[in-house]
Design a protein that fits this description.
Layout lengths: L2 H12 L6 H13 L13 H14 L3 E5 L5 H11 L4 E4 L3 H4 L9 E3 L9 E5 L2 E3 L4 E5 L7 H4 L3 E7 L3 E2 L2 H11 L13 E4 L4 E2 L7 E2 L6 E7 L2
Parallel strand pairs: 1-12, 2-3, 2-4, 4-7, 5-8, 7-12
Antiparallel strand pairs: 5-6, 6-9, 10-11
Length: 225
Amino acid sequence: MSRAEIFANIRRGLGREVPTDEQRQTVQNRLRAKADNIIPARAQLPQPQQVELFRTMATEAAAELIELDNIEQLPAACDNWLATQNLNEFICASDPQLAGLDWTGIKATKEERVARVGDMAALTTSFAGIAETGTLMLYSRADSPTTLNFLPDNHLVVLHEKDILGVYEEAWKKLRSHCQTDDGLLKMPRTINMITGPSRSADIEQTLLMGAHGPKRLVIFLVKH
């Protein structure tokens, strides 16, 4: 059952019709007026210190960080990392930021498509980084389907330092602003993923298993400019 069908069933159960523009605007006003929760002191930092906190927290969560001076260094850095893992192919989001780079010099085979079972590595961009926990925020769209984030064993992610925020509340505000339409309404993505380190599970005999529900490795290309 699709999300639209689920919401339609809920509306019927509540005896409600499709919301009017006035009702939609009321919801938007309420979202904008909502006060923030208590913000952890450790994340109330100037932006340079937020970047350093993100580095620390992401590393503690077992993510691998590779720092780049600029986005043009990404193709070579990605190719080098794949070579160290004896991987010679990867799938890539068709995100304009990635599509605009020069990939002609790489040795690995690059494909732009949805992920399938058996794919070993995927490269995507991220919408934001959250310093308090070293978390990445990604959202689904036509040029970056969610399958890229979870099916391959290795998830390679591009994050710009300027996109690192202190706390979750700021990341959600940024996403709402990004998704606001010209008429002031929100058109949110179908899926939003919060990713903190590689997938893991310790609920089987309390033995830590990497890659239990997704990628075994998370590699973050942290771009300064």
